[in-house]
Amino acid sequence: MCLGIPGRIVAITDADKLMARVDVAGVQREINIACVVDPGQAPDSIIGTWVLVHVGFAMSRIDEQEAQKTLQLLAELGEMQEELTAMQSTAQP
Amino acid sequence: MKYVDEFRDPERAAALQQRIKHLAAQIFARRGRPLQLMEFCGGHTHTIFRYGIEQLLPDSIELVHGPGCPVCVLPRGRVDDCVALAQRPEVIFTTFGDAMRVPGSRQSLLEAKAAGADVRMVYSPLDALALARKHPSREVIFFALGFETTMPSTALTVLRAAGENIGNFSLFCNHITTVPTIKAILDSADMKIDGFLAPGHVSMVVGETPFHFVCDHYHKPLVITGFEPLDILQSLWMLLRQIHGGYCSVENQYSRVVASGGNDAGLNAIHQVFELREYFEWRGLGSIDHSGVRIREQYAAFDAERKFSLVNLQIADPKSCQCGEVLKGVIRPWQCKVFGEQCNPQKPLGALMVSSEGACAAYYNFGDQQALIRLREENGVSV
Ligand code: SF4
């Protein structure tokens, strides 16, 4: 809930509602991107961007290197599985 | 237990450790007593234990584990409210997994579920909203929990529900706020904190400005900190640098995620949907002014508290439970009379044993058990 997990935006699923599909270590699900799209910015322009995902919302953009490092650390600590399982349980919107 | 050589970048860790020792020794020579530095956030507590960071620090630095674990500070009366809501036949009660096992005065949500209540674990408040769309004849309640980090997500979900006119969705709002709580800690008579590691993901939402009072009014240093072990070591060194230099300011160690102004869209959503409560009850800490938010009148239709006229009964913790003293840093987790024996992660008596971010669970899972037993005996904690 508080730690978040890095993922990459792979597609915009609903530009009006600011929803996108994100890929987190191979698991994909729909998330909200309202907090990472600037006013007036086209949602499409953030495809490919890495973001920190908290409870189904992209909360911050991060650079790719940083994202990979964090994912690797979470995996090493065995702390990724729980988050991924929770994400996957409701991955089909 | 992990040590420096297991860090991702052992050389940097060792270098930081040396610098910390060096500064801490000079500060200690001047003050003659150890520094008490608080990591507010449960995520930090978790990293500290996971990596044995306390073992890397000289005795002149004591880490005080703060109350920043939303699950741990949930009062029993609130869990009872959840259970009562979940037991209503029309209700689908949705919650993050972390909250399932928090003990109420009679049952946890997990026990209520086993007894037949419709309690469902969700990953996101958006999933709860999707359930409401799917089951229009049921009332779907989402148990909104967490500090400012998760507030934008629930606020945006309420805005979406309002936009779509979904009448069978509501929040049981138990969001809590960081800044008033840090203020309460600074005002508390039994706590003498010399500096703060501030929560990185709360700051990602609120930015740096709300923390300025810590320096301006209380003259304590504060460093916004990331969640990797090296982040924590670096931030500790930054705190020491301020203390040694005799100045204080808000520094941002986690600038790779935290913008100084926070997140505008997130803050706007929070302000649109939520307003401060006069006070909020914390497990173990009692009532703290302005430390929680509720849903604004305008969105009353999405407020489970109003919809079901909840009265927020206050229910004291069990007598043997010393969570409050641990939360305030007055005693260490292993000093609690029931630590390990009557209270452990399998059968938690207090909330600090429930979440992996709770200080007691951290000690239990990652502490050296033999050393803890020895400490308990030496200090006359009856086993
Ligand atoms: S050991 Fe259990 S009862 Fe004692 S402080 Fe920790 S969580 Fe609370």
Features:
heterodimer, A: 93 residues, alpha+beta, SH3 type barrels, five-stranded antiparallel β-sheet, 2 helices, 25% helix, B: 383 residues, alpha/beta, Rossmann fold, five-stranded parallel β-sheet, four-stranded parallel β-sheet, 13 strands, binds iron/sulfur cluster
Walkthrough of the structure:
The complex is a heterodimer of chains A (93) and B (383). Chain A has 93 residues and is an alpha+beta fold. Helix content of chain A is 25%, strand content 35%. Chain A is built from two helices and five strands. Chain A has helices at 64-76, 80-89, and strands at residues 5-14, 19-24, 27-32, 50-54, 57-62. A five-stranded antiparallel β-sheet of chain A has the order 3-2-1-4-5. The mean pLDDT of chain A is 87. Chain B has helices spanning 10-31, 42-50, 53-56, 76-86, 109-114, 125-134, 151-163, 179-187, 200-206, 212-216, 229-245, 264-273, 304-307, 323-327, 359-366, 369-378, and strands at residues 35-41, 61-68, 91-95, 119-121, 139-146, 169-175, 195-199, 222-225, 250-252, 274-276, 279-282, 286-289, 293-295. In chain B, the strands form four sheets. In chain B, strands 2-1-7-8-9 form a five-stranded parallel β-sheet. Chain B is globular, with a radius of gyration of 21 Å. Chain B has two domains: 1-322, Rossmann fold (3-Layer(aba) Sandwich), CATH 3.40.50.11740; 323-378, no CATH class. The complex binds iron/sulfur cluster (SF4). The site of iron/sulfur cluster has 14 residues of chain B, from helix 14.
